[in-house]
Amino acid sequence: MKGREPAKVEIQCPACGREAWLVRKPKYDGFTKVGETLTCALCAHEFASESEVPFRGSRQPQVFTAADRPRPVQVFREDEKGRMCRYCAEYVVNPFIQRCGLHKCEVQATDTCPHFRPKPPPKEEAENETPGPFRL
Ligand SMILES: [Zn+2]
Questions:
Q1: How many domains are contained in the chain?
Q2: Which pTM does this prediction carry?
Q3: Domain of 21?
Q4: Which residues contact 115 (CB under 8 A, 6 or more apart)?
């Protein structure tokens, strides 16, 4: 036994289109529990009821559609730190667990992974990279 681990219920979220997991929170009316909210852990999409939740039953590897496929990433300088999970686009954090969205396993922020792909920068990618006249 390795401590308490929240049961993760895997879903295929229709809102964000990702493989995510379900977040259950009790819903209170005053002090009376009146039900649960069911939300997607990744995009916080709320499901009206349990029957709406697109559970993923099997654990078999998902076949990626073309749209899901990570785009080839352009040069990421050989920076050791650059390959850590915490900088990876697949790295997902919630209050209980850090997770690799690609391998669907628990990871540490400092793990490194051969399938690392850098998290996209917060800004939209530079639109027009004008070839600078300064290039040597
Ligand atoms: Zn979602």
A1: 2
A2: 0.37
A3: 8-57
A4: 90, 102, 103
